[in-house]
Specification:
globular; five-stranded mixed beta sheet; Uracil-DNA Glycosylase, subunit E; three-stranded antiparallel beta sheet; 25% strand; 187 residues
């Protein structure tokens, strides 16, 4: 299979305080919007809805089975949430979105990304593959799922590195428990 380049630009709003890094978007035919966590069956935006609005469907347009991209972008800019992924180029070893079958061809230059958002004090990985790339890049330990540690970014200082549970429905944790884990980021 030939390499696939990242389809999105980094979303780095002014004043971003938290950078979420997944592994790589699913294939375009799985998207319900052209933004991060675009798969209708991924629970990231339902988790944010539960945490901030006590409504898992806050960012959902349920009858159309899609997310409200405008509301999501506005919310993220207002809350200082930035997004990208830990790979800018991957090879899919199987014809699906599973991290287990993603080969990272070109990892993201996370330090360069962070230099563009100097107010950022928290880096969050949202799954195993993303966590592995950060650990390989910075030579750090692996935090427990739902836990954090201080991570030294060369020439930039320290940042809090959180490893969160995957928001994929394939990850065997109920939505409410995932939301409880992610809620800790915002305390």
């Amino acid at each position: 299979m030939s390499p696939e380049k990242h389809p999105f630009q980094p979303f780095l709003p002014a004043g971003a305080r938290i950078l979420f890094l997944g592994s790589f978007p699913p294939q375009p035919h799985r998207w319900c919007m052209p933004f991060y966590y675009p798969n209708w069956i991924n629970d990231f935006w339902r988790i944010m809805g539960l945490i901030f609005f006590a409504d898992k469907d806050h960012f959902c347009i349920v009858p159309e089975k899609r997310f409200d991209e405008f509301a999501i972008r506005t919310f993220c800019a207002d809350k200082g949430l930035a997004f990208y992924d830990t790979a800018t180029e991957v090879r899919r070893l199987r014809d699906n979105a599973s991290d287990a079958f993603l080969e990272v061809v070109t990892p993201t230059d996370v330090a360069a990304l962070l230099s563009q958002i100097p107010s950022c004090y928290t880096l969050v990985t949202t799954g195993q593959k993303a966590t592995e790339v950060i650990v390989e890049t910075f030579g750090c330990d692996i935090p427990p799922i739902g836990g954090c540690m201080q991570l030294k970014i060369p020439d930039q200082g320290y940042i809090t590195f959180w490893r969160m549970p995957s928001t994929s429905r394939a990850y065997p944790l109920p939505l409410e428990r995932k939301a409880d884990a992610y809620r800790r980021l915002f305390l």
